[in-house]
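Final report, section 2: Outcomes. Of the targets proposed, 4-coumarate-CoA igase is the one most frequently requested by collaborating groups, and we therefore present its record in full.
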Amino acid sequence: MASLENTAVRFPSVVKPSPLPHSSNTAFEFLFSQPFRRGTETWKATPKDLQKHAMSEPIPPEKTIFRDGKTGATLSYGRLYRDALTVASSLTDGVLSLRPAPLSASDPKVNRGAIISPVVLLHLPNCLPFVTLAYGVLASGLTLTAANPVLTPQEIAHILTLSQPAAIVTTASGLSSFQQAFTLLTPELQAQLGYPTKGNVFLVNPDADDYGASALSLVQPVTNLGGWTVSDWKVLLPPNPKPFTPPKYTGSEDALRAAMIFWSSGTSGKSKGVILTHRAIGSALIAVWHASTLGENERLVGLPPFYHIFGWANVLMVGVAFGATVTTVSKFDPVTYLKIAQESRATHLHFSPPIAVLLAKSPLVDGFNLSSVRGCTSGGAPLATSVIEQVYKRLGILIKIGYGLSETGGATQQQSMTWEHLKSQLGSCGPAYPATELMIRSVETGKPVNVGEEGEVLIRSVCCTISYLNNPEATADSFTEDGWFCTGDIGKLDPEGNLYITDRLKELIKVKGFQVSPAELEDSLCASPLVQDAGVTSVYHQDHATEYPRAYVVPFDKEVLKGGKKADEFAHALRRHIEGKHAPYKWIRGGFVLVDAVPKSPAGKILRRLLKDCKGHNVSVYEEKPRAKL
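The predicted structure is given below as tokens.
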């Protein structure tokens, strides 16, 4: 392939979508309809050249779809379907009696018409209860949201304020965070949510739950913890549930009803709620089916968090839609991960770049048989081409890269079955998903640039978010009048349509696949009485294959700038300050640089591109863990 720099091709960087059907009805009904079988309505509406990629056999009810990697407990396809309907029945006509919002609730002036039904919040690691609860909420017509279990009380309070969940499912340790977060809410919101007394808080014990290990799981009694009345989540699975039929969405109703709210960090600071409709979620799976090299009877390792778009769209939803068997992993440990991949005879792995480095370099890998693995997908953050080459040379496994955001439900994917084909795509994120439009537009003029030229990446598809939750300013800033979503990423297209991401307009930091807002950390640092000013940018850690936040801090006490013990004490005080406010992936692991000034524009905007040129005293506050034996 000719290099982008030397190509003589001169035509606009716009990728037109290939025609694909979109999903209909609830995402639950669509995913369980086995839509990718030959002869289905989805298959019939698919272009002829894509119909060859189809499932040949129905998914048997007894087939294991999810398996707990620690206990071996399993969920069959049939049981998951039945239990999800039971959860839906309990949420709407049993324990809680929640009701989906009426169609008349759609207001074009609010969330661009999205219908937000009562929200159910899952605050769990990957586990079998997460699976059944998620599908149960999708079946019910209520709105699901899920949050990272390591979020701090302050971060949880922000999510509670924006989404106002009608029910919460968490763990015993997570309950403490919610109780602290609850005290940060306004008295009016506390009274409305009523978590301490309403009976709308449920607990999961991921280490000892018997769900999936027995036909009828034991329900723990209602209890009082820290003054809150809480119930075992399995009260939502009574032995004799009321029959439940999922709602039917006709016309464009499925394109308005909010199915899922993800939480995405932005440059303005706190997380934004990304609303995905039932149509967006189902249609994204159609795109994944045709863009990936996955087929039927795949065996996957469920390590990517299900509360994150990468794990949601590529693992959790794929288990049901493709009939794959997913072995869940709640927390990463190199030995456990490799053991599960070996014992489950995994056919495809999904991970963030640090695990690709493990496969490329760790001597641990030599002790495991990964011959069943046909391919891998790396997402969430950039991955060096050299690592992809090392993994192929060492293991003969192809690692393919995808690009997407919570807001787009996916966007591009390398589609290679051989190393020779993949080599031509290295450095890129591959071509656009079917039914996805891409455009590279000039940051200066707003018009499309030519192929090979850099500009902002814009995406338009049925899979895109409809709105940010109750955030009209961010929504207006992110969409053009004709429906393009502005990603804030800088990239370019080659003549074959492969997308290259070259920079970030929005300055987000990617820590092992998670987005970190520099502005959010700057606000927290400047809230310390020790800090006069602060700027945050990223530093790339080669061995860990990830970015980390690095803070450039102006202290009030100028003696700190001289270094020594006083500087160390200052930096560690800020470390503790940040650890008390933010989840671990947001911690300043790139160190503190103590400077006399933060570069700013005449208007007062931090010039983050100049931060790395600032001279100052560098203090590392986290010890480097030895990794030679990994």
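The chain has a mean pLDDT of 91.
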